[in-house]
């Protein structure tokens, strides 16, 4: 079993190294004339309180092909 602090450290390092990829994807999405976004609520554990709180998952997509969009990729 891995210690919680080890997993937290790994996640911090992964998020640091993936930040440029996320920034690039965000810039690509912002250049689109049509976007689809879905927001889904989900329960998330709230450590220390013994309860759950509401978390959110967001999915953003673009596909201009069926709409005759300006992007040719």
* C-alpha termini separation: 44 Å
Mean pLDDT: 87
* Biggest sheet character: 2 strands, antiparallel
SSE arrangement, N to C: HEE
Oligomeric form:
single chain
Strand order of the largest sheet: 1-2
**Rg over CA atoms:** 18 Å
Query: Which class of secondary structure composition applies to the elements?
Result: alpha+beta
Number of strands: 2
Strand content: 25-35%
Helix content: 25-40%
Shape: flat
Q: Which segments are poorly predicted (pLDDT under 50) over 5 or more consecutive residues?
A: none
Number of alpha- plus pi-helical segments: 1
Description:
The structure is a single chain. The protein is α+β, with helices and mostly antiparallel strands and 73 residues long. Helix content is 37%, strand content 30%. The protein has 1 helix and 2 strands, in the order H-E-E. The protein has one helix at residues 4-30, and strands at residues 36-46, 51-61. It has a two-stranded antiparallel sheet with strand order 1-2. The protein is flat, with a radius of gyration of 18 Å.
Q: How do the helices and strands line up, and which of them pair or pack?
A:
Elements: H1 4-30, E1 36-46, E2 51-61
Antiparallel strand pairs: 1-2
Brief write-up:
The protein is α+β, with helices and mostly antiparallel strands and 73 residues long. It is built from one helix and two strands, in the order αββ. The model has no long low-confidence stretch (mean pLDDT 87).
Descriptive key words:
73 residues; alpha+beta; two-stranded antiparallel sheet; 1 helix; 2 strands; 30% strand
């Amino acid at each position: 079993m891995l210690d919680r602090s080890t997993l937290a450290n790994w996640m911090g390092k992964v998020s640091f190294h993936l930040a440029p990829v996320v920034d690039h994807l965000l810039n690509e999405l912002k250049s689109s004339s049509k976007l689809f976004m879905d927001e889904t609520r989900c329960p998330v554990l709230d450590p220390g309180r013994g309860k759950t709180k509401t978390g959110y998952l967001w999915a953003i997509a673009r596909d201009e092909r069926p709409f005759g969009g300006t992007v040719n990729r």
